[in-house]
Amino acid sequence: MRSVRIGVDTGGTFTDIVAVDEETGEILTTKTPSTPANPADGFLAGIEKLGRLDAGAIVHGTTVATNRLLEDRIESLGFITTEGFEFILEIARQSVPDGYGNSYFWVKPPRIVPVHLVRTVGGRLDHRGEEVWPFSEEQAVEVARWFRAKGITAIGVCFLHSYANPEHERRMREVLWREHPEAVISLSSDVLREYREYERSVTTLVDAAVKPAMRGYIANLSTRLGKPFSVMKSNGGILSAREVVNQPITTVLSGPAAGALGAALIASTAGHVSVITLDGGGTSTDVAVVIDGEPSITTEGSVGRYPCKIPMIDIITVGAGGGSIAWISPEGTLKVGPRSAGADPGPLCYGKGGTEVTVTDAHVFLGRVPPHLLGGEIPLDVEAARTGVKALADKLGLTPERTATGILEISAFNQSNAIRQLTVKRGLDVRDFPLVTFGGSGPLLACRLIDILGLPSVIVPRDPGNVSAFGLLTVDVKNDYVRTYVTRDLSLGKAVEIFHDLEHQAGEALDREGFADPVYQRSADLRYYGQAYEVRVPAPAGEIDDEWQAEVVSRFHEAHEKLYGYAYRDDPRHGVEWVNLRVSGIGPITRPVIRRLEKAGDGATSVRPVHFDETRDTPIHQRSALGPGATVQGPAVIEEYGSTIPIHPGFTAKVDDYGNVEISRD
After folding, report:
1. Residue 435: beta bridge partners?
2. Which residue intervals define the domain Hydantoinase A/oxoprolinase in the entry (predicted)?
């Protein structure tokens, strides 16, 4: 029996599985429909589909935590904070969403914990972590008993300045353990030991909110699987399931992070070190930017309406997937998404009870998608898609072809706007970056994105529907640690102490994961004195001395100038302020090798009516038959097991040495 490493990515519509033979390097892929009611069912069905294999290691990308937040399924959640700060969530920040400005009609959304479920406890620390007045054990007991009486079992604790000294929060946890043993507790000093009390509070509460669901899911999956496994984290690393249940917030962008990393490795192997990645699924599209082989990392991310200041790959998500629903606004205009038909009931063509036209139905109507998915495993009801598109066209007063094309055009512009947010709005020229597109629906709009954005090319990897699952097998074990230390006069001794403490925490965690020789990456957040937000820069390894400090400050000036167009290198009026010190502890793994494509055998080309600018008989190519150097001239369609690539008139697709299809304008 072959020993393999397996990656399982649970998406909104399909669960994708990739297995890498640890001896030969052979890569096996498959897909199975997701099971939203219990994602573990789809997970196990996918592994069974691979056949009899000895799973040496299993890595899982899960959407359990993400969906909990996106769908606002937050129940039985309480908040404990410092006396006098019970309205911290109500005050929040002054910013309002783009497009509203200062408009009076914007209504602040409900808080993650309503104010009647917020309780406070006496005691106070200053910004250095020194006690101003003592922790009130009496009030803590009263609060714990109040939550127990209310039946609130998930509780977040965030006391003022606990990033500097976690003692009061830990005493609160001890009281909760004693007085309310059923409670699931998250402390801000464990989740995010960083200043800015509102963001720290919300991040802690998000962790507490998803912890019960994640613990239940992981326990269920572990029991049914019968062996240990690891879970993908938002920061681009993995962690064992037994550890991740204690910090579930780190998994909120689990699947999309794996996709960006897998695409980055595939692109760099083919000679493209800086690319945009686009993961098109059934429910949404996830976009990231890769520069010099590494996806961008942010701590200013959010999931749905909740800010999450944990390190995560910088991903923009839009509701523009294959299942996105086309609808008519009250003004009579055609809209697409963000609502999705998902996996159940799915698009009209799935024949599972769907009643609304989706992006997939438009592709099927135009002939750009074959009348079946997964090599014939899932037959599609072409007539149902046709009937739905015609009915929508009648309401709009358009032809069915014009309506279906319009649905795809709107979806393409939704995706292009997400790409602009990560490039143009951040000073990057989108025309400098090839686009790596993957996911089941990712390649379907490749040609339109080239025209809309002026992209040099679009690269579609082999087995594009399984790139996220492949990405799970390319990532190291990784944990991130942070400590706020705000100062204009850096004490090298204090910096040594903090970094040593953070590296010790990272080392202990990696030791539990079985890594005897971890790698530590330092970084620091700096700003000019008087600024509200900081810039993160990598910090050198080795001795922390004057030379080390000068190097970090120099990197900050350079990064600030690159981001904002100016720096104050030689202006003593603008001092540099240190804000946060960070350490990432990394346990390196052996990555799978992407092999060059061997010469393919002969493959048949069929013909099917497809509508681009007009309906005509169009060549249909099987991707498995296209060897290195093969060229396909549009109009044409390239089909494979998990995805389809429509090549519009005026475009050419070429196959490179690694089997990637590269599309460009003639």
Report:
1. 276, 458
2. 200-480
Give 383's contacts (C-beta < 8 A, 6+ positions apart): none
Q: What is the pLDDT of residues 215-237, one digit of tens each?
A: 999 999 999 998 889 999 998 99
Beta-sheet strands, E only, within 140-226: 154-158, 184-187
Calculate the CA 244 to chain-centre distance. Answer: 16
Amino acid in position 193: R
Is residue 91 packed enough to be buried (19+ CB in 10 Å), middle (13-18) or exposed (0-12)? exposed
Residue whose structure tokens are 């769908």? 71
CA distance 531 to 493: 26
pTM of the model: 0.86
What 3-state DSSP class applies to 331? coil
Q: Is 456 helix (H, G, I), strand (E, B) or coil?
A: coil
Is residue 16 classed as helix, strand or coil in its secondary structure? strand
Q: Please, what sign has the CA dihedral across residues 186, 191, 196, 198?
A: negative
pLDDT in tens, 322-380: 889 999 998 899 999 888 887 678 899 999 888 999 999 999 999 999 988 777 778 89
Say how many CA atoms lie within 13 Å of 42 toward its Cβ.
26
CB contact at 8 A, 125 and 161: yes
The dihedral of CA 604, 611, 408, 435: what is its sign? positive
Please state, in angstroms and rounded to a whole number, the distance separating the CA atoms of residues 584 and 11: 28
